[in-house]
TrEMBL record:
Belongs to the short-chain dehydrogenases/reductases (SDR) family. This is Oxidoreductase. InterPro entries: NAD(P)-bd_dom_sf, SDR_fam. Keywords: NADP, Oxidoreductase.
Length: 275
């Protein structure tokens, strides 16, 4: 049972964060392969546009409203899938935000929002999904993390922390999920051309489109691999960098991103909020 691979005949695929970027492209990809795909996001209008675009495909798109930061919303989402649309066979937990962090001007909200969406948001989806899947003794869950979870990168103090946590979470849960018949995978994309990555202030090598990312993920979901990472020419380099001593790692990342050439930040203290 641990090698369960969800097929269209097994039931519904649920994708969170499907209004744009990777989630949107993956929803169209899987609908084109005959899957019935339930999509959630905070932007209802964009989900309706996605549903319209899927008309004529061999599968279909079901629009369900919901905010991953609201645990009750996610309970209702899974209940709606199970009791109104069919068996939840696969969940792709993709919703996320990227808020660049400036180490010279740290803000609580950058960390709090990143943790609420990227980490707690996954947990809010995971708990009801697993509850339903374990009753059937089968299911498939893919958590979308990022290669920034491998190691620290400039501006990624909040985002990277959440993605590293997701990788560890998936690794840890696999031991129990194998016994429940639930197959868990972690998805670690490199740089994908989305609204989020366009905020990066450094060159992004091997940048790919959301459609290429969706193709890679769709293929990985049908494989038995625990990790789905791409493009390999980039992700393997980052994995190798993790083997370096920290002194060499930081030098390599500074050179790789061009961050070492940027001017030094101002050391002028910001006013304390209580002043």
């Amino acid at each position: 049972m641990r090698d369960f691979v969800a097929r269209p005949e097994h039931g519904i695929v649920w994708i969170s964060g499907a209004s744009s970027g990777i989630g949107r492209a993956l929803a169209l990809k899987l609908a084109g392969e005959g899957y019935k795909v339930a999509v959630t996001a905070r932007n209802h209008e964009k989900l309706l546009e996605l549903q319209t675009e899927a008309h004529g495909l061999s599968g279909s798109i079901i629009v369900l409203d919901g905010d991953v930061t609201n645990a009750e919303d996610m309970e209702h989402t899974v209940a709606a899938i199970e009791y109104q649309h069919g068996n939840l066979a696969m969940a792709v937990l993709n919703a996320g935000v990227y808020l660049p962090v400036d180490g010279a001007h740290l803000k609580h909200e950058d960390f709090n929002q990143s943790f609420a969406v990227n980490l707690s948001g996954v947990v809010n989806c995971l708990i009801p999904a697993v509850r339903h899947m374990k009753l059937k003794g089968q299911g498939q869950i893919a958590i979308v993390s990022s290669v920034t979870g491998y190691g620290g990168l400039p501006t990624s103090a909040a985002y990277g922390a959440t993605k590293a946590a997701l990788i560890n979470m998936a690794e840890s849960l696999k031991f129990d999920f194998d016994k429940l018949g639930i197959r868990i995978q972690i998805v670690n994309p490199g740089f994908v051309d989305t609204e989020a990555t366009r905020q990066n202030q450094f060159p992004m090598p091997n940048l790919i489109s959301p459609e290429v990312a969706a193709d890679e993920i769709a293929a990985g979901l049908k494989s038995l691999a625990f990790e789905i990472n791409f493009p390999k020419s980039f992700t393997y380099k980052l994995k190798l960098l993790q083997l370096l001593p920290y002194g060499l790692y930081f030098k390599a990342i500074n050179r790789f991103t061009g961050w070492g050439e940027k001017p030094k930040v101002s050391h002028q203290p910001a006013p304390h909020p209580a002043e």
